[in-house]
């Protein structure tokens, strides 16, 4: 049973870490796990996996490249890491790690409830008025007068707001709070 080795290189600066990761992956048959940024000092750790010899060669190449670009803080090769160590190496802070997709349960079919539609608007009643018999003018046929007997509903069934704006609305006038004169001395 062959277990992959773990290689770590810690640098100051992300540019040095990226250059180290590039040199490591190009120099040997290793897999880049990802990188992790520290909480302070601008340090970054590059994590590699592969055979012991390949990881050692990759870390050596990465160390030389990172020293050329920036500063190397530490390097380490762990030949046979414990299985419990994967929890630390494959942490949430590791950028670039491929996490398994969470399995999603099939959605439960729910009954689709349709929104209640507005009731059809009632038709206005047509009221015909008879011409007045007292007028001495020639009678003309009466034109129908449409008198609405309902308020037109709005989108939510509420009556429309009143449109009468004949009365002005008096709003209270506010004055800014008075500040003491800044030239006065405090006593």
Structural write-up:
By secondary structure, this protein is an alpha+beta fold. It has a domain at 5-85: 2-Layer Sandwich (Alpha-Beta Plaits), CATH 3.30.70. The chain is 19% helix and 20% strand. It is built from three helices and six strands. The strands form two sheets. It has a four-stranded antiparallel beta sheet, covered by helices on one side. A two-stranded antiparallel ribbon has the order 5-6. A hairpin with a 5-residue loop joins strand 2 and strand 3 (43-50). The longest helix has 18 residues, at 52-69. The protein is elongated, with a radius of gyration of 41 Å. The N and C termini lie far apart (87 Å).
Question: Key features?
Answer:
single chain; 187 residues; alpha+beta; Alpha-Beta Plaits; 4-stranded antiparallel sheet; two-stranded antiparallel sheet; 3 helices; 6 strands; elongated; CcmK/CsoS1_BMC; BMC_dom; CcmK-like_sf; Microcompartment protein
In short:
With 187 residues, the protein is of the alpha+beta class.
Question: Structural class of the helix and strand makeup?
Answer: alpha+beta
Mean pLDDT reading: 77
What is the fold named in CATH at topology level of one domain?
Alpha-Beta Plaits
CATH class of one domain: Alpha Beta
Please trace the helix and strand order, writing H or E for each element: EHEEHEHEE
Please estimate the helix content.
10-25%
Q: What's the Cα radius of gyration?
A: 41 Å
Strand segment tally = 6
GO cellular component, one term: bacterial microcompartment
Keywords: Bacterial microcompartment
Organism: Tianweitania populi
Family: Belongs to the bacterial microcompartments protein family.
């Amino acid at each position: 049973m062959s277990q992959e080795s773990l290689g770590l290189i810690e640098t100051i600066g992300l540019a040095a870490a990226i250059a180290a990761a590039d040199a490591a992956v190009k120099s040997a048959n290793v897999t880049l796990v990802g990188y992790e940024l520290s909480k302070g000092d601008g340090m970054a750790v590059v994590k590699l996996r592969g055979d012991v010899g390949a990881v050692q060669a990759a870390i050596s190449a990465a160390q030389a490249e990172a020293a050329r670009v920036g500063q190397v803080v530490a390097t380490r090769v762990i030949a046979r890491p414990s299985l419990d160590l994967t929890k630390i190496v494959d942490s949430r802070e590791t950028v670039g790690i491929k996490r398994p997709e969470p399995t999603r349960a099939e959605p439960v079919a729910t009954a689709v409830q349709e929104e209640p539609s507005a009731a059809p608007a009632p038709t206005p009643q047509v009221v015909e008025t008879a011409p007045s018999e007292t007028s001495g003018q020639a009678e003309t046929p009466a034109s129908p007068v449409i008198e609405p007997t309902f308020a037109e509903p709005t989108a939510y069934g509420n009556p429309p707001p009143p449109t009468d704006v004949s009365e002005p609305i008096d709003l209270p006038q506010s004055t800014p709070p008075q500040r003491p004169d800044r030239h006065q001395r405090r006593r």
